[in-house]
Every structure is written in structure tokens, then in C-alpha cells.
């Protein structure tokens, strides 16, 4: 039976039990039945009626352990029940009911500025509703005389007194006398009417009122931009975001599981409730793996390698409990199934250099089990495992060391922000810098019936088993290595206590068993959820805000700091639409699934819609692990820097009593480049959509562990949800600037300057590589440098037109002609299309051996996936000493840059 719960907002999704009660997968949110603004102003009694009562959904299921993920449920084998204690959830709901805040009643004068608009309104507190009504005229005529008393109708007797009154009225009535003054007044009025009619004809003939009619036809009116910005900043409510983080992180929801499906329904209901124009859910069928609780083991074996003398605990102390659906077992997404044994060898951070060092020490890694730690010189866990595989290891264990994210840094969770002794960092080990998205459909979307690569042939998968481990368990392994192999260099020593001496181990080390048997599904369903506000001038062009929804465990920080902000943006912008406003360009809100498994949800969407995105997606804003500290950071494409700085200049950090931009400048920060690691990858590197990734960061936190829960967020990371509020302001201002500014606020001059700087860095790096390999002056960068100089010069000239447009509009008293408006739209389109011109789209084009990635400037590094890498194809070829290929790709890049520069003309 479908769930009987009614979707609600502000934003309080259901608990896990309620979402799943009675097979909630069949539940779909009903369409809105009343006005969104009226709904937001519902009385407390009405709000209460939208919430399910504690006694409802008696057929729900109680979580009592991990269940292999599926959205299919067996009524006789239900694991979930709704009789769990709901006090916590009811408290959150009461908090949300108390958050019904009256919107400011703002009024103000109007002004004129452009063809598309004609007038701007200060932000009203009511929903726009206007209907043309014809005036009514009433003429009082004399009443017909009543029949005389006692007379019959046949006599048609008429009261003589009434007839006398009528005659008297007619005699007294006379037309006014015509004199010269009356003629003059009449002529003046006719002349004024003719002037008004002529002026209106001129406006329509010149196209100046096109924008007004277009705005009305599309349901949008223009408001004063400053009023919009002020309203947005005042409307952001950290308490709503607190409630959203609490609800979404109240149960585990790995991609493809029932918990994940419940969150998809929640987001869909919230988008509908926010009043977005279009809301839809999109399914894909992808390769995912899940752990078996009895299928995982890390053990030290006896001398014969037959019996275990010690077994690792593997999992953390339970942090969720039954009411939270129980935490996820520790495992690696997309890991290789297997049960292997071998001598244990410690290899520091698991970089290529570390594995080479092991070999240089005379230690044979063949058939051994590698023990490496997170972070360090190799930040990508997948490349740690791949490096071990290529070095000859049979398996790989990755542990969290206190020197990197534990007690040596400070207080540990739950009272502090660092990883405790039992904390385990989960994560995927698919090679996202090699293949992105579903590893079985690289380059095309994973719909149900499409062809697939065989699992054992997938380039994005590692070929040895691996597991994550807490330092509590790694301590025992490190202690058993003493006396085997060689003492490690000082730089290799971690912070695990009571280890004493750190040794590498060798082929005589204790035998360790690594068992990783798992459930695998090549067509596991996942669910993206989309919402859209249709723009009133260029509805096909869009600004996209994206955030992933799946989590390795509870995911309060990663990803639900971003989820809460995206839902808050949908609420605020949906409210603006309800008030009559519309952006010039469309705004899209996208909740991605399976990001943690190799960025699957966003990549499959891009692969399905790639041509449209290359043509119409102007910008992509990514939210992920958005709030984990107080330091504002941003990575992105240079054109977006102008809008970012505008937003930062308006947002003040109350803890430092100054703007984010001032704090940014004080520490000498800059807009970093994009590598890999989150959902911007497919947009930037495949679709050529200018992208930006935002966060408030800080010191490490219990990343991907069960300690990343609501309590940690509320008590340690952002107690007052201050930084949630600041980030929401930044994101909202960015959306307004990019979607509603008449001229797209892209900084093309900044792009040209950055290209020149990056090419200078590339040339310096390449020269050093030539020297290392005893080569000299093989690579020729002259054409590439000339192309960057051309882009820079063209961008300088191109950008001057914005000032010319502004001058022409002001000179005409704030009006924009139809011809000038057409030029402005073409100008915007050229800026939006520039990034797509930097894609290598010829047959077989893209980064060699990684042809999914098409951008010639941006892309992940082959062996350092999370780090920024400019001109990755050239770097790959130089690293492989393919000098001719490198020169050829330098020339190709220069050609594409020249073609991109050619569109920067008026």
C-alpha cells in the first residue's frame, strides 16, 4: 500500500520509518491544491494537519541491521517498523512550525531601464494578481408610472401627474451652448489623445514594449535588483537549514538503497512545495556494490596461514541505532571482490613514489598486502589501491592515521572535530580521474537497455580487493611488523600510539588475510531529482545549482550541508516566483544520486543531455561538503570570478565582523582550478559548462565516517548554523547575478589572463621534465602562447561593449531598442558558448586514453585526481615521454583556443 503521509515543507522531510512505511516507494507527492503563498502562511492548525500523527503508518518497518540494497520489499520480511520512538522527529517538526515568519512588507517606487522590462517593482509581500476590468456605466432613467389604484391593466390608465413630470423634465433638458472656449477645449483633448495614440504606436513599432509583453506572457515582472538582493539576504533562515540537516542525516542512505529512495521522494516533495515550475525524477541503472557483514575480514594468521590469531573489529561503535536505520558497514565502493592472503608491507601514503621506494629498498611486494594511510602525497584513495595493484600487491588496506586527522590534531569526535580511534573513512576506489560516471557505460547514459562493458574489462575499476580501517585496528598490524623489512624514513612515521618502531615489513612479515566478498548489481536503480524555474527572456538558457544526496553513512556534512542550502534556495526563489518575479534565464536545481560512487548521477545526466548543455548551460554551481569550517574557499572557471566577488563583498562574517571578500584578500586566496572529486567534473570537462565549487572549510573532520552526523555539526562544526546562512547568501546572490543580470556577468578578460599564466606554468614544468629525461627544447609552446595572447586581446576588446550598451541605454532614458536587445542576447550567448569551444570534439578526441574528458584546459590529473590540472592531455603525454604526441596536442590546443577567440567579436 502507498504511504498515506502528506508531503510537507519548511523543510521537514519524513523520518526514515515514515518515508518507508507501507512501501513508500510507491508514494508520489500530490500536486499543490492551493496557492503556494497561502500555503506558507497556513495557520498552526493547518500546518499540524499536514503532518502524520504518531499512530499512523502502523505497517511500517523497523531497521534492525543492514539490508542488501534494493527498492523491492517483501511484506513478510519487512525490516522496518514505525513504532520507533518519534520524540526527536516531533521536536524537529515543532521547531519548524515555530519558524513560520512573516515576509517583509516592502514597497517602493518604480523606475524604467530597458526594453525587456519597462518598469521595475520593489519587492511586494503579496502574490501578483491583476485582471483587467471594463468600467461600468449606469444611466438613471425616469421610472414608468405605476398603475392607478383600482384600475385594470387593460385600461392602460396612466397617472396624469407622472405625465406632467415627464413633460417638465423634457422641457428643462437642453444641450449646452457651443462657444469658442468649448471648441478649444475639445480640440485640445482630441490632440492630446492623438499624441498618446501616436506615442504608443511608436513604442510598439520600435519594439520597446516587447519586454513588457514578454514578461507578462511568461508570468514574470521586473523588480528592483537591489530589493531582490536585500530580500534574499534577509530571507535566508539558518534554522530551516538546521532542521533539514537534522532530518536528512537521521538515517543511513547509500546510493541505490531504500533510505536513498526515501530522500529522493523528500527532495521531490520539497521542490513541488516550493512552487518550482517543473519537478521530475530521473532513473538510471548503474553498477554498484554493497558489503556483506559476514563477507569482510582483516585477520593476522598463524605461521601456517590457516587459522586467525587476531581479527579486526572493522566497524565503528554504533552511532545511529535502530531509530536511525543502523550505520553502514565499513567498505570501499567499487572495490574488487576477493579473499587474499599475503605478508603485510607498510607503504606510507600509497603514492607511486612510495611503492617505488619499497622496491628500491629491495622489498618484493608481489602477492603481499599493502597497508597505507589516507591523505598525504596521494590524496585519491582509488589511486592508492591502483598503485598497489600495479606494484604487484594482492590487496590493499587504507587506515586513518592520528597524525593526519586524529587526536594529534585536537579533540576527537563526538566532542571534537577529528577522527576518533574507531572512526573509519569509507569511500569509493573507482578511478574517477580515468573514467567518470557508471564504469560500465563510459561515455553514454546508463538507461536500462543500453549496452554495457563487462565488469572485468571496466577501465574504471581496480583489480585487487581493498578495505578501510580505523587506527585502532591498524595499530595491531603495525606492531606486528616490527623487526621485518627495514625501519621506515622519518617522513613515513605516522601518529598511531604504542607502535614503537615503524618498519616496512617484507616477504617474511606476518601473513594477513583480506576478505572482501560483496553484493554487486550491474543495473542498480538510482534517482536524480530536478526542479526548474523557467526564465522569461531566454528560457532555454540555464544556470544550474547541483548537490548530491547519497551518503556513505549519515552524511550531515557530506553532503547535507549542501542539500540544506539547495532546498533553502528552492524555497526562496520559488517564493519570488509566487510574488510575480521571474529570472531572465532559467534556474535549475538538481539533486544528484550516487555521487559517492564515481560521480554517477551527474555524469549520466550530462551524457544524456550533453548537446543541449553545451549549447544552453551557461554556468554550474556545485554544492557538496559545503560547511566544515570557517574559511571560505572556491574553485572554478575564471569567468565566474566577477559574480563570486560581488557576492562575497555583500556577505559579512559576524565572527570576524568583515566581509568574506576582505577575509579572502587578507589571506591572499585565489579562485583555484578544478580537478576531480565532485559533480562539477562532467559539466566542466565533458559539457564545457563554466563551473564553480564552493565551501567553508577548515581542519579535517571525521570524513565519510559514522561520526559525520547531526550532533557533530550542531555541537562542533557550525553550532549556530552561521556558515550555512552565509553560504546560502553567497549562493543566492550568485544565482541572481548569473540568472537575472541583463548582461551575463562573465569575466572574459580574467579568462584570457589566466590562460596566459597557466601556459607559462605549463612551459616551466615541461622544461623541467625535459631536463630530468635528458632532453632539450623538444616541446614548442610558441603557438600556444600566441593563442592565449589572442584570447586575452579579443576578450579586452569584446568586454568594452558592455560599457557601450550601458551608455546607450542610459542615453535613451533607460530604454533598450529591439535591435540593441538582440545584440545583447547575442553577446551573452557568445560568452556562454566560449567554454564549449575549448572542447576537443573530433572523433577520438579528448585526453588520450581518457577520452571522456574533452576540455583542453581543464581535467583531472592522471595520478592526482583531486588536484587541479591545467592542460592535462599535454601533461599526460609529457609524463609518458611521448614528445611528438605532446607537440601535436599543443598545436591542437592552440587551434581550439584561436577558434574560441574568434567568437569574441561584436
From TrEMBL:
Positions of the Transferrin receptor-like dimerisation domain: 779-905
Domain Peptidase M28 per the UniProt entry, residue ranges: 528-711
Domain PA: 340-427
Biased segments, Polar residues type: 44-61
Region (Disordered), start-end ranges: 1-107
Family recorded in the similarity comment: Belongs to the peptidase M28 family. M28B subfamily.
Official protein name in the record: Glutamate carboxypeptidase II
